[in-house]
Amino acid sequence: MPWARLRALVEPVYAGLASRRVRPLELDRMLRIYFLQRWFRLTDAAAHEAIHDSTAMQAFVLVAPGAAFAPDEASIGRFRRVLKDCGLAKMVALAADRHLRSLGYTIAPGAIVDARLVADSNAHAQTPFARIVDTAGVAAG
User: Fold this and answer.
1) Which of the two residues, 98 and 123, has the higher pLDDT score?
2) CA-CA distances (angstroms) from residue 33 to 5, 30, 41, 44, 91?
3) What's the pLDDT tens digit per position in 24-52?
């Protein structure tokens, strides 16, 4: 992703609202979280939770495992609303989509799905707690 270009689109508005100089790493994290929300259809709360629960999401968002910094739900929501209210959400999304298409990629938004148990045709899967019978015929397991 062209993070520097995306940051350049957002920084003037985001820094102006905060009335301070925004650190590039902070803005990069918020942009990455915004894309996680778009790609995985995450709410603000779900994005916050996913960052805490997934080392892959932490790595993408540039948060070291176990690090103290991870934006809270309210900060994620404020950033998303700033992008939307200032008309930057579409611009950022289009710039990212254009970049990915130039590389021959496209992202189809999806959802993070919980794991589920699926029936296995293996005989061992049918009796996972098989009882072991000792020589006297008494169940041992």
Assistant:
1) 98
2) 16, 5, 11, 9, 16
3) 578 889 999 999 999 889 999 999 988 88
Other CB atoms within 10 Å distance of the CB of residue 62: 14
If you search the block for the tokens 């072991």, which residue do you land on?
132
Gap between the Cα atoms of 46 and 44, Å rounded: 6
Contact 79, 34 (CB under 8 A): yes
69, part of any domain: yes
Asked whether residue 123 is domain-assigned, the answer is no
Asked whether the CA dihedral 31, 34, 40, 42 is positive or negative, the reply is positive
31 assigned to some structural domain: yes
**131 within domain boundaries:** no
HSE at residue 28, side-chain half, CA atoms within 13 A, is 14
Distance CA 90, CA 42 (A): 17
Residue ranges making up the domain that contains 65: 3-102
How many domains does the structure of the chain reveal? 1
